[in-house]
Amino acid sequence: MTVTTPQYFDEAAVRAAISPAQAVEAVQDALRAGFDPGTDHARVFEKLTRGQFLLMPSEVGQDAGIKIITVNPDNPTQGLPRIQGLYILFDAETLTPRLLLDGAALTSIRTSAVSLAATASALVRTTDPLDVVIFGAGPQAIEHLATLRAVLGEQRAVSSVTVVVRTLRTVDIAEAHVVEAGSVEAADAVAAAGLIICATTARTPVFDSADVRADAVVIAVGSHELDARELDSALLGRAQVVVEDVPTALRECGDVIMAIDEGALTVGTLIPMADVIRGTTQLDPERPVVFKSSGMSWEDLAIAAAIIRTAEVNQ
């Protein structure tokens, strides 16, 4: 048998190969097909002199893959990305490499795709215009807004976008109204919002949850440490809290862990996103929905597999 050299997709090729809506569908399809996130391989963190390696292996059906990411917090001062790396997609039977992908691009696409895969049903249960607040103005703010628009399509209009930053500055979201964290404007925007997206490096809650509407959807993707969170315990205590996988959330999601430790939340009330996507759990429209994401290896694999299937069809 002839073994061919796997093709490499750089960032532009990755983005050209899959749309935001297709990435959301790939994540949902993996769960609808019966994959159990609890069986996913654990990711591995290894410290390096200048940062760390993050290794994320997974195997689902006929596909296997691993993402190898480096994180160097000092890189931005040198004009380099903080996160860099590669994704290698293999055939699960022969373990032959099939495709190489830009790891950072895949991560960016995956993060927002998972958020919207988990919350799409809650966001389209009404056609009322949607006011959006985004805490943070980095790449994930942009990715989430683009994926949100792809998911909503013509079903629901986005009527306003408010971006909350620590220091007022110009952001790369043309239609955004930019306000300063902690300001009256920020609190008013939170009170009006049907969707709040938190994509920050904050280690403490970024807003007062007393302002959050009873029908709001809140997405938190920024913190991934046991002692860091973007949301306060009071919000998780009154919300329906959706997570990718309960044991994973209890290991990695500070927002969830601290809310449980403080007595505001119980493990038994956590909702796996698979139950929402498969329709076995119906979300209450009169309570907030919180989706807390940690990022899991199977999600990258689902999107990488969708990319190679599309590439094969188009050849």
Automatic annotation (TrEMBL):
Protein's name in the database: Ornithine cyclodeaminase family protein
Pfam families per the UniProt record, alphabetical: OCD_Mu_crystall
Highest taxon listed in the record's lineage: Bacteria
UniProt xrefs under InterPro entries: NAD(P)-bd_dom_sf, ODC_Mu_crystall, ODC_N
